[in-house]
Design brief:
The chain is mostly helical. The protein is built from 28 helices and no strands. The longest helix is centred in the middle third of the chain and has 43 residues, at 400-442.
Length: 659
């Protein structure tokens, strides 16, 4: 290999090493803040956002498919971020307290360049769909007087926009960015450590075992794996990429079409964002916005999460059976791979102990979020290094020094994985914070509430449907924590103020709607990732995802009509409401997937399917107990008749065959 050939390789390795060093330093600064709170949180947030943007730019430059032009733009963006962050960090006290209303001309220029740079990076990462929302907000803020009717407002000057976005140390560094910086980031470090220490190998083993227990076991493995990983991962796309990289090929190997495999993974990955105890970090943002304790948010989310995953699991089973009678895979290949790398008992200790610490400190001892996250990460590092070393010493089969070195390398990789995940989230949250602050200044949340009431005619069900559509639009291309933040500010007040819906129920409604934006066209960001892995058509994969997750488009509305699902804790009322919603959801799933009777006309089959769907929807969202149980009894009666007809057909066929 010539010297000219080696030079790009050396440059790449040097860049990789630089990224690794920066990510370790980045996490050490976050850990230092979590332990000491040594500087004001707004000032720390400046460092957090700036550091994340630098890591993001470097990581993009390091990708093999990056063109020279893109590399140049990323390098310039990184330089702008470094200069701007340094200036804002150093002059923080002046801008924030000494002279909050006195801004120099060069500071306006600095803020404008920084804002344009961050918007360009956000466009690079999240695409046109997300940026169309941001662009509308900027246009709306400046040209407010030119908008008609309710939308009209006084308009904001360019200077006011820059002050609100950057120089007031709000906007990019506002309250939601501060929550992510102080609370969410450390849980994403935990997710990075899990990946580096081999948690996916353990999940793979569980998936293989599940494949042997159920006819749809391979597909169910996607549901279980995504539930576990997605719970602690701050983005649907990251979750879909992590788990989908092995579940989608397994499902395709088992015989499922690519579009179905991609759809199952997209729905399951999205659901991880509402699964306690971490709920994809949205729980922490919700607790901060509402002033609730984390434990209250956690308990409120248990029943809906169970409904989510049970209905998805049943839908996945029906979907799998529709294409393949028995999903099978080459178990030997996967079993050998897993057995040579990990031992189940040791891995259960390595990953189980930190998870127990997480649940205990957050849900039982009710430590602060920061303390719980720090303790969980510390224990994860201790078990991630200690368990393999102990295993090496006790077995005398491996070089202990080599094992220690390997686990230390994994720890550093975990820091890097975590930083690569947190960097785009830090960026999009900063942009969303700008959007929220500008909209609040213009009075948009109140205007939107009035418009929703006017369009719905004051009827709750119509308002709920309109609000869900808005949530899908506003959540286009965003991680759940960002989408939830935006819709919580804009839409939740409509239900709490105009319809007297309990605050927690309203916020869970918009959270679930934000989650569903990940599988809803035209953006469907989770489907974008999974269809890419499955090499399937995006639109067909979206249709399959909606089919698998059909119940989930109805369940959020139940929070508004049956708030006892969310509020009041685990009581007889909440559990009975949960059972009714679950039964209604299963009715909807069966209606979407029941096998058509070939002896009856198409119209009869469509009518039967419609009855199932109507009965299921009535059971889920209708406030009357009599209507709920009447709908479920109708569904049961129809099922008995339908199954009885199928049994008679089979008997007749056997009689004719024997005869």
């Amino acid at each position: 290999m010539t010297e000219s050939t080696l030079t790009p390789v050396r440059q790449h390795l040097s860049l990789e090493n630089l990224i690794t060093v920066l990510t370790v330093a980045y996490w050490l600064s976050i850990i230092w803040y979590g332990i000491s709170f040594g500087i004001p949180r707004p000032q720390y947030t400046i460092m957090f956002v700036g550091g994340g943007l630098v890591i993001y730019a470097l990581d993009q430059i390091a990708k093999e498919d990056t063109t020279r032009a893109r590399t140049t733009l990323l390098a310039v963006s990184m330089l702008v971020v470094i200069v701007s962050t340094t200036y804002l960090f150093v002059t923080f006290r002046e801008l924030y307290s000494t002279r909050p209303i006195v801004v120099y001309q060069h500071e306006y220029i600095l803020a404008a360049v920084l804002l344009v740079t961050i918007l360009a990076l956000a466009y690079h990462e999240f695409g046109l769909g997300f940026m169309s929302v941001v662009g509308f907000v900027l246009v709306y803020s400046y040209f407010g007087p030119h908008f008609p009717g309710l939308l009209s407002h006084g308009g904001l000057s360019i200077r006011r926009i820059l002050e609100t976005s950057v120089l007031d140390i709000s906007g990019l560094y506002g309250e939601i960015s501060r929550i992510v910086a102080a609370w969410v980031a450390l849980f994403l470090l935990y997710a990075g450590l899990l990946k580096a220490y081999g948690a996916l190998d353990l999940i793979t083993r569980g998936a293989i075992q599940a494949a042997g227990l159920l006819s749809s076991g391979v597909a169910q493995s996607a549901v279980v794996a995504s539930m576990i990983v997605g719970s602690i991962n701050g983005a649907q796309t990251a979750n879909a990429a992590m788990t989908g990289s092995f579940t989608i090929p397994m499902m395709k190997e088992g015989g499922l079409p690519g579009r179905v495999a991609g759809a199952i993974e997209a729905v399951a990955s999205s659901g991880g964002q509402v699964m306690p105890p971490v709920m994809g970090s949205a729980a922490f943002v919700m607790a901060s916005i509402l002033g609730f304790t984390y434990a209250e948010i956690l308990v409120a989310g248990l029943i809906p999460a169970v409904v989510y995953y049970v209905t998805v699991a049943i839908a996945v089973h029906f979907t799998s059976k529709r294409y393949v009678d028995n999903l099978t895979i080459d178990r030997d290949e996967y079993d050998m791979k897993v057995k040579t790398r990990v031992d189940f008992g040791f891995d259960a200790l390595k990953f189980g102990i930190p998870f127990v610490v997480l649940v205990y400190t957050l849900g039982i001892a009710q430590w602060t979020v920061v303390s719980s996250a720090l303790m969980t990460c510390a224990v994860m590092v201790a078990t991630g290094i200690g368990v393999p070393v102990f295993r090496s010493i006790s077995s005398n089969a491996r070089d202990t020094a080599a094992t220690l070195k390997e686990t230390l390398v994994q720890t550093v990789e975990g820091f890097r994985h975590g930083a690569v995940v947190v960097a785009p989230i830090a960026m999009i949250i900063a942009v969303i914070n700008v959007v929220v602050d500008l909209l609040n200044v213009t009075g948009m949340p109140g205007t939107l509430s009035l418009a929703l009431i006017e369009l719905s005619g004051g009827v709750l069900i119509f308002a709920a449907i309109l609000a869900m559509v808005l949530c899908f639009i506003l959540g286009m291309g965003m991680p759940v924590v960002a989408a939830y933040t935006l819709v919580a500010i804009l839409i939740a007040p409509t239900f709490t103020g105009e319809f007297n819906i309990p605050t927690l129920a309203a916020h869970y409604f918009v959270l679930y709607a934000a989650v569903l934006s990940g599988i809803t066209p035209p953006i469907a960001i989770a489907v974008v990732v999974t269809s890419g892995i499955a090499k399937s058509n995006f639109w067909l994969t979206c249709l399959e995802a909606i089919r698998v997750g059909a119940t989930l488009f109805v369940v959020p509305i139940a929070f508004l009509f049956k708030p006892q699902l969310i509020i009041g804790g685990l009581t007889v009322s909440s559990l009975s409401a949960g059972l009714v919603v679950l039964a209604g959801g299963l009715t909807i799933i069966y209606g979407m997937n029941f096998v058509r009777d070939p002896t009856r006309g198409r119209a009869v089959s469509i009518g039967t399917r419609g009855v199932y769907l109507a009965a299921g929807i009535a059971a889920v969202i209708h406030p009357s107990v009599l209507v709920q149980f009447g709908a479920l009894l109708l569904a049961v009666a129809l099922y008995v008749v339908h199954r009885g007809a199928n049994v008679r057909q089979v008997r007749d066929l056997l009689d004719r065959t024997v005869g």
